[in-house]
Amino acid sequence: IGAVNADAHPSLGSKYGVQGFPTIKIFGFDKSNPKPYNGARSADAITDAAMKAVREMVEDRKSGKKRGGGGGGQSRKEEKSSSDDVVTLTDSNFRELVLEGKETWFVEFYAPWCGHCKNLAPQWARAATEVKDKTEGTIKLGALDATVHQATAQQYGIRGYPTIKIFKQNEKSSPIDYDGSRDSSGIVNKAMEYYVENIDPPTIYELVSQEVFDENCGTHLCILAFLPDIADDGKDGRNRYIDLLKSLGDRFKKQRWGWAWLPANANPELEKSLKVGGSGYPPPQALVALNKKKDVYALYMGAFSDDGLGPFLNQLTYGRSRLSTHTLSEGKLPEVKTREPWDGKDAPPVFNIIFLMEFVDEDLSDFKWDDEL
């Protein structure tokens, strides 16, 4: 594992298309074509990626695979055989697919003889597959041979190759020039920026059953918030907490996390398993980030506010600092007990019966509660 100061060595950064920092690339069997690292920025994730690269390099050597040449890249035809997710665009289908389609399009205008286009081809293909999966097909990548389909190329003033233009959903008449990194990770990141603009924020569910838990936490990371009892903060207080969760859910919607909340003491066994509780709510550990697939979770220990929760969720997103994580006891959680959802009202009033003895004239020395109940 090495590090390069791209400010001090700009030519090296430029050679490998480094546009943002930090950028991580894996130089495996084929040193001329390093692969971008798109995983989490944690020690465990980087170690897993490194071991995977070593295994792939061993397999490549065993199979007799040859290293890449002098950067000539693959032809568009060769690359097409390895990925069908790049849509071939022409003068005849461009209007129907791109301009009249509902999707956002990233369109590469290329020339078959262009060396830079050949180098871009495998990156474009990898990005097309990843973007298709991550955006559920709402963003597509296409390629148009500008030397053959000149009418479309001239319409958009194409003079150099490759030129990439972005045709945003509902704004097709004014395409945007793509100015990001020309590797797959940079292309995917840019596509995800546009994807996030158009997706709805997540629903903040009340955790009222095991079914709700499975839907939100069964297959991906989820955020569980333990809120005060309704008798403590009332309807207005609870709604403020839920509004805060909605705001955070919208801000981090790109992560596609599940979100759920439950009131204090609604599920004591679950609280105990996640080490949530203590005097007063929200307690220091009022929020849990749970990865059920890996049977680990992180506890938030701080003020239940935007200033406190925001940095915690940023750490989950970017892995910029170590989180205190815990392993689930016996690799499982107790089943969530089914209960009625909150009715949106305040807690019923509690009446205290006070006897003011000095105002009572009768002799109550022989009074027994048992006789009255």
UniProtKB/TrEMBL annotation:
Species this chain originates from: Ciona intestinalis
Q: What is its main location?
A: endoplasmic reticulum
An example Pfam family from this entry, by short name, is Thioredoxin
- One Gene Ontology cellular component: endoplasmic reticulum
Q: Which PANTHER family match?
A: PROTEIN DISULFIDE-ISOMERASE A6
What is the official name of this protein in its record? Protein disulfide-isomerase A6
The protein's matches in NCBIfam families, at most eight in alphabetical order, are given as: pdi_dom
Keywords associated with the record: Disulfide bond, Endoplasmic reticulum, Isomerase, Redox-active center, Repeat, Signal
Q: What GO molecular function terms would the record report?
A: protein disulfide isomerase activity; protein-disulfide reductase activity
CDD domains noted in UniProt:
PDI_a_P5
What are the BP-aspect GO terms?
A: response to endoplasmic reticulum stress
The chemistry this enzyme catalyses reads:
Catalyzes the rearrangement of -S-S- bonds in proteins
Q: Which InterPro entries match?
A: PDI_thioredoxin-like_dom, Thioredox_PDIA6_C, Thioredoxin-like_sf, Thioredoxin_CS, Thioredoxin_domain
Q: Where in the cell is it found?
A: Endoplasmic reticulum lumen
Specify where the region named Disordered lies, as residue ranges.
57-86
According to the record's subunit comment, the protein's assembly and interactions are: Part of a large chaperone multiprotein complex comprising DNAJB11, HSP90B1, HSPA5, HYOU, PDIA2, PDIA4, PDIA6, PPIB, SDF2L1, UGGT1 and very small amounts of ERP29, but not, or at very low levels, CALR nor CANX. Interacts with MICA on the surface of tumor cells, leading to MICA disulfide bond reduction which is required for its release from tumor cells. Interacts with ITGB3 following platelet stimulation. Interacts with ERN1; the interaction is direct. Interacts with EIF2AK3.
